[in-house]
Amino acid sequence: MTKASTRAGAGGARARRRPAAARAPAGKPGDRVVIRAARRADLDQVIAIDATVTGVEKRPYWLSVFRRYGDGARPERHFLVAEADGRVAGFIIGEVRDWEFGAPPCGWVFAIDVAPEFRLAGIATRMLDALRAGFRRLGVRKLRTILARDNTLILSFFRSQGMMTGPFIPLEMDLDA
Description:
The chain is an alpha+beta fold.
């Protein structure tokens, strides 16, 4: 999965972060939230969330992502879901990458999304907190992501979490030119 696939739906900007163990306010979607490793049985719901946001169902892509990130065989790879009210409310995927671009090992967020009806309940923050905790256990002290410039929803979310512009500038070119 490319870093550019980080997509909207993280749960909106928040003025302050909730602790990882915090619950959403009583009576709101996501009252009972558990952040856990994704299971094969979660994929239909992950695919549905992604399709709702992107407008495209990418089943083969998500099966491939699950094979790479969801098997739990590599501790540096994480595919987590937020389970709320008995269903998948969101997902986050990330991994530790070593020495690319000359940088020491760091954690990358490749994808994060929350079903629209669960947004603004702190679910994205809790998923990001869980991912960061996993990275810290591996000795990683830096978190990065790449997103589209016009993706203001996810940009606002990441900035509300304390992320800011990093030391790298993404460059690209068309290969058909």
